[in-house]
């Protein structure tokens, strides 16, 4: 018997592998029918309510379409990996076409179209292999120090079977010289004009330093939608700020001092507010809400001069007189602080308490420090504290004992329910929204709080620990809200306690 052609061998081997692995790609139709399960009956495709909201907002995918997309995406990825190993040097990359759910795979050898089809993918015969394109990119990378300013960057374009070199308008000639100097085969490179101006992006974190104008330094308090809150004595409305790295950051949009000691800064597109506080030990503390802690509670402060220090709350509604005047309604603590820590975060566990105002003493001998309560700042400027929810653990007593309203229901694994009663509620004033979820023992139930932003539901707080019980707390402005209960793993009855402004 004559030897079998290589592509026939590949087809047979690949078919056997796929039969075992069950990796035939999912089309949109059959994935939609399976909804949250893979076509071969495998594990459900778990998609959080927060992610579903974002996909609907940004890609126009409803929950069913999103789950179908992820099922197809997962299967396509596994099929692509098998084809990469099987096709070897002929492999030219795999991709999902825009709006499609069937994997397309490039091959340089027409005979390899058969094993691609056997895998359930669509073959496309191209000139350059993935390895060739990778070597071209690596060559450009090695010459990056010589790239002209007009060149924005370069990347593989698998569907185009080319390396794309991006340049600003008018920089084409400089880009061509760069390619010639690098010695790249220009037959596999396409020069494209772009108006992109990439820049690094930075996180806004509580406790990090920021600078006011060209002079003084303060510390970030807590991230809010659009920026962060801090101390009023740090800057005046209209003043500009730069971050810890001296990159332009934002502008004071409001400031009050004395009388109060609060302000907020609206950040620019270089900076992304995050619901975390720098613990100055190589990590962060996640902010879950802004529930006020009672007098006697242990609290910790983060600031850019002295880092992370702790103490206790000694009093609330305290007044203190500075040389500039008296500030009232402050939190008095035994936490130490020093100049530059002003504006920084005060936390009780994962609950935001206030921003550093002033005090006496230092972090060598100790002292007394005062803090402007964070909830007052949020209410004064109509801001929403950024939180990740959390808390978790077992709610005290019965499920959410003491909540204003209680809702009960039952969910099977992977499903969600909206409360109150499958709908939403309206808050007519700013204040704290809290939810306490008790799910069945041995399950993983999650809780989300969402707010209507005018065009879609946006998650503003979430509790996603591995526990069956979750708690969320969020200080927000007036608007429409709803709670989402998600049976991440396991099924059964749940109880949800809700308290709203």
TrEMBL record:
Matches recorded under Gene3D superfamilies: 2.60.120.380, 3.30.300.50, Trypsin-like serine proteases
Keywords: Disulfide bond, Hydrolase, Protease, Serine protease, Signal, Zymogen
Database matches in InterPro entries: Pept_S1_alpha_lytic, Pept_S1A_streptogrisin, Peptidase_S1_PA, Peptidase_S1_PA_chymotrypsin, Streptogrisin_prodomain
GO cellular component: extracellular region
Entry's Gene Ontology molecular function annotations: serine-type endopeptidase activity
Top-level division of the source organism's lineage: Bacteria
Signal peptide per UniProt: 1-21
Location of the Peptidase S1A alpha-lytic prodomain domain: 128-185
Protein family membership: Belongs to the peptidase S1 family.
Protein name: Streptogrisin C
Annotated organism of origin: Prauserella shujinwangii
Taxonomic classification: Bacteria, Bacillati, Actinomycetota, Actinomycetes, Pseudonocardiales
């Amino acid at each position: 018997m004559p030897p079998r052609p290589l592509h026939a061998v590949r087809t047979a081997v690949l078919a056997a592998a796929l039969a075992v692995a069950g990796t035939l790609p999912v089309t949109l139709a059959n994935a939609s029918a399976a909804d949250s399960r893979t076509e071969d009956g495998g594990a459900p495709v778990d998609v959080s309510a927060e992610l579903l909201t974002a996909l609907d907002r940004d890609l126009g995918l409803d929950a069913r379409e999103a789950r179908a997309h992820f099922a197809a995406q997962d299967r396509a990825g596994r099929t692509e990996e098998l084809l990469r190993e099987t096709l070897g040097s002929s492999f030219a990359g795999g991709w999902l076409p825009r709006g499609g759910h069937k994997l397309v795979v490039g091959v340089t050898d027409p005979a390899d179209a058969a094993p691609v089809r056997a895998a359930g993918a669509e073959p496309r015969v191209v000139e350059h292999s993935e390895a060739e394109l990778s070597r071209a990119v690596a060559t450009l990378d090695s010459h990056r120090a010589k790239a002209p300013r007009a060149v924005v960057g370069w990347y593989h374009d698998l569907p185009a079977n080319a390396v794309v070199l991006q340049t600003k308008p008018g920089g084409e000639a400089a880009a061509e010289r760069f390619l010639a100097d690098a010695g790249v085969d220009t037959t596999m490179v396409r020069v494209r004009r772009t108006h992109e101006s990439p820049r690094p992006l930075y996180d806004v974190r509580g406790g990090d330093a920021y600078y006011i104008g060209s002079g003084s330094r303060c510390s970030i308090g807590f991230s809010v939608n659009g920026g962060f809150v801090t101390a009023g004595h740090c800057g005046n409305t209209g003043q500009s700020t730069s971050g810890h790295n001296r990159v332009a950051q934002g502008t004071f949009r409001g400031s009050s001092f004395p009388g109060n000691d609060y302000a907020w800064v609206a950040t620019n597109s270089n900076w992304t507010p995050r619901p975390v506080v720098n613990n100055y030990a190589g990590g962060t503390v996640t902010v879950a809400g802004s529930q006020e802690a009672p007098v006697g509670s242990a609290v910790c402060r983060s600031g850019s001069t002295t880092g992370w220090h702790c103490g206790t709350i000694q009093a609330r509604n305290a007044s203190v007189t500075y040389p500039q005047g008296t500030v009232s309604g402050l939190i008095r603590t035994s936490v130490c602080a020093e100049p530059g820590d002003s504006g920084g975060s005060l936390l009780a566990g994962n609950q935001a308490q206030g921003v550093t105002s002033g005090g006496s003493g230092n972090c060598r001998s100790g002292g007394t420090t005062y803090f402007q309560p964070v909830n007052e700042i949020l209410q004064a400027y109509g801001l929403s504290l950024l939180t990740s929810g959390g808390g978790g653990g077992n709610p005290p007593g019965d499920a959410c004992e003491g909540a204003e309203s209680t809702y009960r229901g039952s969910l099977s694994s992977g499903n969600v329910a909206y409360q109150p009663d499958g709908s939403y509620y309206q808050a007519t004033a700013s204040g704290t929204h809290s939810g306490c979820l008790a799910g069945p023992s041995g399950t993983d139930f999650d809780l989300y709080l969402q707010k209507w932003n005018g065009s879609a539901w946006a998650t503003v707080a979430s509790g996603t620990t591995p526990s069956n019980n979750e708690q969320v707390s969020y200080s927000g402005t007036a608007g429409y809200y709803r709670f989402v209960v998600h049976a991440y793993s396991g099924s059964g009855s749940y109880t949800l306690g809700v308290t709203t402004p």
